[in-house]
Specification:
The chain contains eleven helices and ten strands. It is of the alpha/beta class. It folds into two domains: about 200 residues, Alpha-Beta Complex (2-enoyl-CoA Hydratase, Chain A, domain 1), CATH 3.90.226; about 45 residues, Lyase 2-enoyl-coa Hydratase, Chain  A, domain 2 (Orthogonal Bundle), CATH 1.10.12. The strands form two sheets. It has a six-stranded mixed beta sheet with strand order 1-2-3-5-7-10, with helices on both faces. The longest helix has 19 residues. It binds acetoacetyl-coenzyme A (CAA).
Length: about 260
């Protein structure tokens, strides 16, 4: 399907989704969020996608936030619906059935950083700047930033980011544990694709279940998380891929996974 504000391609199991509003630094308006939902549904339904990479079109920005022009005249009810739309969209990213890598190629601010935080891994280019500047606009992060960032880096450091609204250089974001790796700009997409290809070689059901168990287990007591792991792990033993993966190891050959 064609999208107005997104570019989408799938090559050898790796989907590349670009937010495509470079004139406004890829700001997320309602239309783009709706399109993002459509694209995520489309990709999740395809059988051939193993890893998704999300990035921004152009040289300057991943996503510079939710669209300030669209938000500026909103009242509380519209703001509530907009925040909910953002949350629902980012939840779809978080629950996407394959690993998702954010390739942060420039500004990742506000809703842009929140989008990256909903991805499984964040790769950033040297020179990228990340932050939650909402307080400078008289609001605070409304697409999950107040919840996902403290869970990722701890309350105190998250509060510093949220309360100052200041931008953080990619290297500092790496030191803080927000970013998985920092790459030269010209290498960013290639490094994301290389890692995606390495992930894509592994058993798809195992990847999907590993993601689910980490996500679900993160917010429940340890014992509940352990139970989730035991059940999901045991269920893998009813799949073709578990039999194939282990047989291939014993027969000293490369496994051919079917995703079932
Ligand atoms: N929404 C709408 N338009 C945006 C935008 C945004 N978030 N970010 C940038 N733009 C637009 C600018 O208005 C400008 O448009 P015009 O050319 O029509 O003037 C264009 O993109 C280029 O931006 P700048 O001229 O500002 O570029 P710059 O290089 O001087 O500055 C920047 C870059 C520092 C990223 C600056 O654009 C900026 O501060 N952007 C806003 C960042 C921000 O506050 N994000 C948070 C939004 S609130 C939010 O996300 C709420 C939430 O929690 C969901």
């Amino acid at each position: 399907m064609a999208y107005k504000n997104l570019l989408l391609e799938v090559e050898e199991g790796i989907a590349l989704l670009k937010i495509n509003r470079p004139k406004v630094l890829n700001a997320l308006d309602r239309e783009t969020l709706m399109e993002l939902q459509g694209a995520l549904k489309e990709l999740a339904q395809r059988g051939d996608v193993r890893v998704l990479i999300i990035t921004g079109e152009g040289q300057k920005a991943f996503v510079a936030g939710a669209d300030v022009a669209e938000m500026s005249e909103m009242g509380p009810q519209e703001a509530y619906e907009f925040s909910r739309l953002g949350h629902e969209t980012l939840k779809m990213v978080e629950e996407f059935p394959c690993p998702v890598i954010a390739a942060v190629n420039g500004y990742a601010l506000g809703g842009g950083l929140e989008l990256a935080l909903a991805c499984d891994l964040i790769f950033a280019s040297e020179g990228a700047r990340l932050g939650l500047p909402e307080v400078t606009l008289g609001i605070f992060p409304g697409f999950g930033g107040t919840q996902r960032l403290p869970r990722l880096i701890g309350k105190a450091r998250a509060k510093e980011v949220i309360f100052t609204g200041e931008m953080i250089e990619a290297r500092r974001a790496y030191e803080m544990g927000i970013v998985n790796r920092v790459c030269p700009p010209e290498r960013l997409l290639e490094e994301a694709k290389e890692v995606a290809r390495r992930m894509a070689k592994n058993g798809p059901v195992a990847l999907k279940m590993a993601k689910k168990v980490v996500e679900r287990g993160y917010d429940v007591p340890l014992q509940e998380g352990e139970e989730l792991e035991i059940s999901a792990w045991a269920n893998l033993f009813s799949t073709h891929d578990q039999k194939e993966g282990m047989r291939a190891f014993l027969e000293k050959r490369k496994a051919t996974f079917k995703g079932e």
